[in-house]
Amino acid sequence: MIDFATVKAAAAGRWPEIHTYLGIPSDSLTGKHVPCPGCGGKDRFRWDDSKECFFCGGGGALTGGDGFSLLEHCGWTKADALHAASQYLGLDRVMCSPEQRQEIEQRRQAKIHADLDDGLHHEAHVILQCVTGRKNNRDLEGNKAFRSARPDWRPYPTEVWERETLAAKRLIKMLGERYGL
C-alpha cells in the first residue's frame, strides 16, 4: 500500500508541478508573499521551494507544512491528497483502479470549475453594481463577504467606465477558462 512517506520521497523537488496539476495556481508557488490559495488572505501566503513547505498567516496565526499540508489547507482530504499526488507521480498504477483515478480527476476538475464559477459570479456582481450605480468603490471595498471571495481584488479606478471595462475583461477571461473559449 502507498503511504505518505513513499509519496513524499517521490515528490521531493516536484511539489510545485504537483500542486499546479492539482489546481493550485502556479503564481502562488513563487516564493513571494501572495494571496493564499487556501484561505484567500491578501498577502499572507508563501511557498518555500528549498524547504518544500508553505507558510500562511491566516487570521494572525501562522500555519504551514509540507506539500500534503498545503493540499489540505486548500480543501483536500488527507486521503484524496495522497491518492492524487501518487497518481500524478505514477505510483498508484497498481494500487489505484482506473475508476478511482477517474474519480480523482473528476474531483479535481469539479474544484477548478467551482472556483471559476465563483469568480464569474463575483465579476458579474461587480459589473451589475457598476452599471446600476448602486454601489461605489468604497462600498465594494468594505464588503467583507465580497473581499473574502475575491482575494486578488484591488480597488477599481474611480471612473465608472474603467471599472466596467476591467470587470468585463476579467469576466471574459474566466469564461474562457471555464468553458474553453
Describe it for me?
The chain is mainly alpha-helical and 181 residues long. It has helices at 4-11, 15-21, 67-73, 78-89, 98-132, 137-142, 144-149, 160-179, and strands at 45-48, 53-56, 63-65. Helix content is 56%, strand content 6%. Strands 1-2-3 form a 3-stranded antiparallel beta sheet, with helices on one face. Strand 1 (45-48) and strand 2 form a beta hairpin. 24% of the residues are buried.
Overall number of structural domains = 2
User: What is the topology, as strand order, of the major beta sheet?
Assistant: 1-2-3
The overall pLDDT, averaged over residues, is: 78
Based on secondary structure, the structural category is: mainly alpha
Order of helices and strands: HHEEEHHHHHH
Sequence-ordered SSE layout with sheet pairings:
Elements (H helix, E strand, L loop, with lengths): L3 H8 L3 H7 L23 E4 L4 E4 L6 E3 L1 H7 L4 H12 L8 H35 L4 H6 L1 H6 L10 H20 L2
Antiparallel strand pairs: 1-2, 2-3
Helix pairs in contact: 1-4, 5-8
Characteristic key phrases:
single chain, mainly alpha, 181 residues, three-stranded antiparallel beta sheet, 56% helix, 2 domains, 8 helices, globular
Brief rundown of the structure:
With 181 residues, the chain is mainly alpha-helical.
